[in-house]
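>> received
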Amino acid sequence: MAIDSSVSPLPDANSRGVRAALVFALTAERLAAYYEHGQWLTEAQGATLAAEWLGRTKRSLPLAERRHLSALSDVLARQVAGALSREAGLYTVHAMQDALDPNHTSDTAQALMAECERLLDAVEEGASTP
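>> returned
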């Protein structure tokens, strides 16, 4: 039986791309909860969601890292909510949730994913600065 070399293994959970995707997905989840129920998810709730999502692909991150990513998503979600009207916020949440499907793209989601990457990079640069 031949091995299909076109199928690549999943990236490690600690890779930059996976971490940015988690921040993105958690941000979408936080904004949805905020706009639908008027409540923000806690850091612990975000960390639990991240663990559940990672578990679906048999990957994991330590609790401290999941809480860190959850906190970053909280910062971004509150920035987005503070900058947008309710209608624009609902549109943004919809675009983000649609973008969780790899077959769907939008300029809004791509811009927010880039912001997630910038946020991660800024935190990592700050952590490596003496």
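>> The chain has one domain: 16-128.
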